[in-house]
Amino acid sequence: MNIYLVELIVFLLVTLFVTIIFKVKKNHKLKLILFTLFIIFFVSISGTYLLEKPHVYIVSPEINLEINQSSEIKVPHTTYHMKDVTSSVKVNGTVDYNKVGTYKIEYEVPTIIGEYSVEQTINVVDSIKPTITLNGDKVYNLSYSAEYEEPGFTVEDNSFEDLTQKVNISKEEISDTEYDIIYSVEDSSGNTAVERRKVLVVDDIAPVIRLNGSANMRILVNSTYTEKGATAVDEKDGDLSDKIEISGKVNTSKVGEYKIKYTVSDKSGNKSETTRKVIVYKESPSSGTGVIYLTFDDGPSSSITPKILDILKEKNVKATFFVLNYSSSLEYLIKREYNEGHSIGIHGYSHVYSEIYKSDEAFMNNITKLQKKIATTTGYSPTIIRFPGGSSNTVSKNYSKGIMSRLSKAVIDAGFRYYDWNVSSGDAGGAKTSTQVYNNVVNNLSKSRSNVVLMHDFAGNTKTLNALSDIIDYGLENGYVFKPITKDTPMVTHHISN
Predict the structure, then answer these.
(1) Residue 165: how many other CB atoms lie within 10 Å
(2) Strands 320-324 and 343-348, how do they pair?
(3) By three-state DSSP, how is residue 84 classified?
């Protein structure tokens, strides 16, 4: 109701009461009663008007607001004497909407009789839990042989609090092939968030097949091919050698290249394949062309020689060992070299230049003494020799001038044949690694000649040991033939410089 209508009604009532009072002329007592009633009525109406409080329309004396959800205090709608006085309301107090806390706000309204105020409590709260977002997939496939690598995560909170360092990461085992990574975090208001990443352990590693014997074999036509088989090991399933399937055939009666395939699968279906190449060849009638003579000086040694013999046996390759004097504990190696079809040559009972090159007689005694010892060990008396330092050595000049010119004739007259080399592995000189040994050999081979390769089987020479298989494989793959030096092998010699 409009305030002006109220005032009009009050005025009319006052007028009516005054009129009634003055019309009652004789009854003074009644006049007094009516006047008194009028006064009471008037005062009552006036007091009500003067004491009327403004209406401040707040939702509640106490409210909760989410942090960061508001930016300013909104003045509540306010009326006074049925007029909108919202614009005249004064707000006392402040609220930090970006900080959890309790704040008091006073809304002050001007009235006829003074200021009227209403207080409201505003609680800025954080009741929303943080959000954890996982990087990568929530289902993580982990290889059986790999280590779990955390893809990472991000954390967001409506309070803008950095919670990254507060995230707790734990692991919950589900089974042998499954577990959960659990991420949990709690903000400063006690709101907790939990996220999970499922890790499935999968077997995606194929078994490893290792061939017994060489991956590249060469056999003479009309000889017998013997399948050497293979082994297979799986990281999860263990030994699968008995599960290997072998396919392919070798026709030893026909020159050609054949492939034998080896296939195996593990329980998870991971499959491996490898191939052995078998070359059936007919030996060239030419005596030296494309032939490799592997020669080893300065042995035998208990650490290197047996392993070299193992490789030669595996590859079905024969070589030549120019040996030095050996102890009784190493006689078995000389016997093994001989029994496995290798050539045994004489390098010398001694390798000391000052002793062996001081005279012709000293040198001849040096080789004949070892010749007799080898004959006693094996029953075979070797007649092939290699001069210590080679026939081209010049260090012998220090002990006997012209001795190499004389010895090169003397040994032949005595029924010996001597062999130098035209391919050096460098394993007793500049080569420091097996790769350098390999490169020194294969880069100097030639199909147009006999290739006499100088290597050593002295103790600790792992460079040559580790390069040998690859050198043999290179030769076989490139059509070379490996042979041991015999008394019928054409001599390969150096230019004599003393």
Answers:
(1) 7
(2) parallel
(3) strand
Q: Work out the average pLDDT over 381-408.
A: 96
User: What is the C-alpha R_g of the chain?
Assistant: 54
Cis peptide leading into residue 490 (ω within 30°): no
Q: What is the pTM of this model?
A: 0.50
pLDDT of residue 78: 86
Termini Cα distance of the chain? 140
Whether 241 has a pLDDT exceeding 60, the answer reads yes
**Parallel, antiparallel or unpaired: strands 450-456 and 271-281:** unpaired
Query: Do the Cβ atoms of 346 and 367 come closer than 8 Å?
Result: yes
- Say which CATH superfamily domain 208-281 falls into: Immunoglobulins (2.60.40.10)
DSSP strands (E only) in 306-415: 320-324, 343-348, 384-385
- Sheet-wide strand order for 62-66: 62-66, 114-125, 101-111, 90-92
Distance CA 227, CA 137 (A): 48
Please give the structure tokens belonging to residue 266: 């593990």
pLDDT of 498 reads 87
- Residue 98 — left, alpha, or beta (φ > 0 → left; ψ -120 to 50 → alpha)? alpha
Q: How many CA atoms lie within 13 A of 20 on its CB side?
A: 15
What is the C-alpha separation between 370 and 350, in angstroms, rounded?
Answer: 9
* Cα dihedral 209, 215, 220, 221 sign: positive
For domain 131-202, the CATH class is mainly beta
Burial grade of 320 (CB within 10 A; 0-12, 13-18, 19 or more): buried
What fold is seen in the domain 55-125?
Immunoglobulin-like (2.60.40)
Q: Say yes or no: do domains 55-125 and 208-281 share a fold.
A: yes
Q: Are 179 and 209 in contact (CB under 8 A)?
A: no
Tokens for 291, please give them. Answer: 């032939």
Instruction: Please state, in angstroms and as integers, the Cα–Cα distance from residue 327 to each residue in 322, 349, 379, 380, following that order.
Output: 16, 11, 17, 18
Token code pair at residue 126: 């954080």
> 291-482 in CATH: which number?
3.20.20.370
Domains of the chain, by residue range, sit at 3-51, 55-125, 131-202, 208-281, 291-482
**Percent of the chain with pLDDT strictly greater than 70:** 90
Beta carbons within 10 angstroms of residue 6's beta carbon = 15
Task: For residues 82 and 13, give the distance between their C-alpha atoms in angstroms, rounded to a whole number.
Answer: 21
| Residue 300 CA from chain centroid, whole number | 43
